[in-house]
Amino acid sequence: MSKLPNITTSIFSVMSQLANQHGAINLSQGFPNFPEDERLLQISQRLIQENIHQYTPMAGLPSLMEKIAQQTAKQYVRNVDIATEMLITAGATQGVFTTINTFVSAGDEVIILDPSYDSYEPSVLVAGGKPVRVSLNNDYTPNFNKIEDAITSKTKMIVINNPHNPTGRIWTESDFVALEDILEKHPQILILGDEVYEYITFTQPHISFNTREKLKHRTIVASSFGKSLHVTGWKVGYLIAPENLMYEMKKVHQFLVFSVNSFSQHAIAEYLDVVDFSEVSRMYQRKRDLFQSLLKDSRFELMPCDGTYFQVVNYSGISTQNDVDFAKELITTHGVAAIPISVFYNDATDRHMLRFCFAKTDETLIAAAEKLIKI
Fold first, then answer.
1. What pairs with residue 131 in β-bridges?
2. Closest CA to 360 of 11, 30, 15, 39
3. Helices first, then strands: H and E counts in the chain
4. Is cis: bond before 5, omega within 30 of 0?
5. What digits encode the pLDDT tens for the residues 285-302?
6. DSSP label at residue 51
7. What is the DSSP letter of 53?
8. 109-164: pLDDT as tens digits
9. Which of 163, 190, 117 is nearest to 307 (CA)?
10. Residues 6 or more apart from 286 whose CB is under 8 A from it?
């Protein structure tokens, strides 16, 4: 008997395989295709020769945890006790799975805001919980009436991804105040704040759960160096949470992975001394602006992109096909791969939207845009 009977091959694999078959430019998968920072590569080359290849402590390499604590204090004015409030994970995905499987039991309900990243629901199902999918507004802002209506006595957790994949939207101060007003009535509900794109924001500053005094005591914040430092394959993320919650998560973590890749932790710990996260944000804003300018004369309608490295477009002016079929045709006929947004909804809501990843070289973006503006 399967715990995940309805899980099939992911849309990311389907689109990438189709792109490979047809030699299409792949803007579907959410990872960079440009080189890593030369400084990180130099650190890595030196460290590979050193004695750093055995287990790190279960919760993480202390020097890396200290650097994260320093960055958290600098960025969010939150002082984190690395001994009791932090955990290094094998990417944010493992952090999400660990969090959900620590606190969600059979029959518990978890609110997930659609369109949603595809790892949340399977984690809930494996834990025996019930995913409760709540759609965002048409402009991809949160609908707090729907969120409040979805809360029951069985609601254990709400998952909030901000900045948001796949839509690129960012929560505002008023959004957080609205959430705080609702959750004040429901003290039993925990928050999983997925903030992996925290350092990739443009039109407004990212507001982290790390800064919310009314919510910190019940929030687990997940982040990832894969996104911030362009090393998605290293799979190094981290969780920050109050001691009482972290104590329980460490129990699950130690039997899931015990400890995370030692080499990556050492390399990132050194690199954090030199990297400037504001430069990361500026670099991606330049790529976003380039991609948007290249498509401004196309028949695609560009949706707002406040953060992340994803640009959502509406193709209603081009075709009435459903988004999955149009995305496949985009590959086979026009040579560019994207992700249809309907796959991020429980009910496959189709508003003729596609997601392009612009974490690519300028040459890749230009070549893709040349094809897209001809459609």
1. 110
2. 30
3. 13, 13
4. no
5. 999 999 999 999 999 999
6. S
7. -
8. 999 999 999 999 999 999 999 999 999 999 999 999 999 999 999 999 999 999 99
9. 163
10. none
